[in-house]
Write a structure and sequence with these properties.
Layout lengths: L2 E8 L3 H12 L4 E4 L14 H6 L7 E3 L7 H4 L25 H5 L9 H15 L26 H12 L5 E2 L37 H7 L3 E3 L3 E7 L6 E7 L5 E11 L3 H9 L22 E11 L15 E3 L15 E5 L21 H13 E8 L8 E8 L5 E6 L4 H21 L3 E4 L3 E6 L25 E3 L14 H17 L1 H5 L1
Parallel strand pairs: 1-2, 1-8, 2-5, 3-14, 8-17
Antiparallel strand pairs: 4-10, 6-7, 7-8, 9-12, 9-15, 9-16, 10-11, 11-12, 13-14
Helix pairs in contact: 1-7, 1-11, 5-11, 6-10
């Protein structure tokens, strides 16, 4: 006979941790199913090999579009998901991000406004411990002051800030989910620049140190190596009844539940719903709009590099940077593309690999690389631009012809950056090189275009025929099926996704808790 719980949560990342804590503390029997391995804080190591093991998610993603969404850079696996290796850069969405269609005739509108989400931002930042400089951050929307002071600015940040000052641009401390002082039993950061490998001290807020401990204390169960293949429904397809999953021996199981929360990685949420097609839902579950998998987005990004004849101390700090600027956040300008941009200044660097000095010049090898490394180890500086992408229905997650080991089609991404996103990226390249030169670099170059963060596929909206979920991330078609994570974002803004998805998950989880009887009936 199949097991039964009150709620099954698919995935063990950021959003899942919030749902698990809120619902377990409300007395619900919560089971979290995670495809990847179990993980504790003490399993994390500050090394590049460890960093890679947190990524390279399975099952794999196939890509068929003009551009890549940088799946393996963005994804995660195991307890904590992608939020284990995230950099903790946590600016808020701006009020105009929620009403782009109404205000500018572009993009889409959210079914909520900034003021609806503001109290959840405030509560999350107090729970996780957010550092920043409320007064210096002149672009910040209204909200409670940061509970912790900002991260220190080392030589890397001070030197690069000269370029922004020379071009009459403002900078402020990056708002970071990283402790600058002991907080709620967690130690402060040591500023050794290993955030992407996880944080074994617990200074970086991730699901393993904030919400999952609460969930476990309240009785939730985290179950690793459990690959969910599809969501099950009743005969009429009106309510979700649980999930099917495969364990690491290849055995199939059914786990029944009164409510289902899909909080796997963005791509996998769409894939599971598409693979959950049935007679009542021939095009996939929660897809009466035909928009399941649609409006896939990333943030077009570029790293600008410069060599300085100064000791940058570029190994110090955190991966998320020391300073940032949102002077280019206005959506509309006299000429040029629509949308927002922001600059992240002075992320910590390592010798090689993802954030490595050697990787900045992949064209060099042998003696030329050796010579470059000898200078760059002391003199390399970098800033990163994150640009807004536009939601386009043709950018999508769909099912591939190739199947996984369990016989289910893999996901395939069809994506091309929007014209506005490309225009913003090009503007960042030009401005970034000017900024680095103004800071004093005598040699400047930039990276290829990257894709930071993956959003869309299960977007929220007011109208069931134009979205997959409503304002509380509840699917329009299946009232006891909820979606957690950035898949519900109908627009991307130009800020990092994690703070926003935590706030949305808290709003959604509390709605499910407070309306349990009517939701599951």
């Amino acid at each position: 006979m199949a097991e039964k719980v009150d709620v099954v949560i698919v995935g063990a990342g950021a959003a899942a941790s919030v749902y698990a804590a809120v619902l377990a503390e409300a007395g619900k029997e919560v089971r979290v199913l995670e495809t990847g391995p179990a993980r504790k804080l003490e399993d994390l190591y500050s090394s590049q090999i460890s960093a890679r093991r947190l990524k390279w998610a399975v099952p794999e993603l196939l890509e068929a579009g003009k551009d890549t969404i940088w799946f393996n850079y963005n994804a995660g696996r195991g307890f904590g998901g992608a939020a284990v290796h995230h950099f903790g850069v946590w600016p808020r969405y701006h009020p105009e991000d929620f009403k782009e269609r109404s205000l500018y005739g572009r993009g889409l509108d959210w079914p909520l406004e900034y003021e609806d989400l503001r109290p959840y931002y405030d509560r999350v930042q107090a729970e996780v411990g957010l550092s920043g400089d409320t007064e210096a951050e002149i672009w910040r929307p209204p909200g409670d002051p940061y509970p912790l002071p900002p991260v220190p600015v080392f030589s890397h940040g001070r030197i690069l800030a000269r370029g922004f000052e020379a071009l009459d641009m403002n900078v402020a401390a990056v708002p970071l989910a990283i402790l600058t002082a002991p907080y709620k039993g967690r130690a402060a950061c040591t500023y050794d620049g290993w955030c992407e490998a996880g944080c074994p001290t617990g200074a970086l807020a991730n699901p393993l140190v904030v919400y999952f401990p609460r969930a476990l204390k309240a009785g939730a169960t985290l179950q690793p190596r459990s690959h969910v293949t599809r969501v099950l429904t009743d005969a009429k397809g009106k309510l979700a009844t649980g999930v099917e999953y495969v364990d690491d021996t290849g055995t199939r199981h059914t786990l029944l539940a009164d409510s289902v929360v899909l909080a796997a990685f963005t791509v996998e949420n769409s894939r599971i719903l598409l693979n959950s097609a049935s007679t009542p839902h021939p095009d996939g579950l929660a897809n009466s709009s035909g928009l399941l998998g649609r409006y896939l987005m990333t943030h077009p990004s570029v790293n600008i590099f410069g060599l300085f004849d100064e000791d940058m101390q570029n190994y110090m700090g955190v991966n998320g940077g020391q300073l940032f600027s949102q002077d280019r956040f206005n959506k509309v300008r006299k000429a040029g593309p629509f949308g927002s941009r922001q600059w992240i200044i002075a992320p910590a660097l390592k010798p090689n690999d993802l954030l490595g000095i050697a990787m900045t010049r992949a064209d060099l090898f042998g003696p030329d690389l050796q010579s470059f490394m000898e200078r760059a180890a002391r003199g390399l500086g970098t800033i990163v631009a994150i640009s807004q992408d536009q939601p386009l229905p043709e950018n999508r997650i769909e099912l591939a012809d190739t199947k996984d080991a369990h016989g289910f089609p893999l996901a395939r991404a069809v994506y091309a950056a929007s014209a506005d996103g490309l225009g913003l990226w090009n503007a960042s390249v030009d401005e970034g090189q000017a900024l680095i030169k103004a800071a004093g670099a005598d040699e400047v170059w930039h990276s290829p275009r990257g894709g930071q963060h993956i959003m869309g596929g299960t977007i929220m909206g007011d109208k069931p025929d134009a979205s997959v979920t409503n304002a509380v991330s509840q699917t329009h078609d299946i009232p006891n099926l909820f979606i957690g994570g950035p898949g519900v974002f109908p627009t991307s803004s130009a800020v990092n996704s994690t703070f926003h998805l935590y706030a949305l998950a808290l709003m959604s989880a509390e709605y499910l808790r407070d309306n349990w009887a009517s939701v599951v009936a």
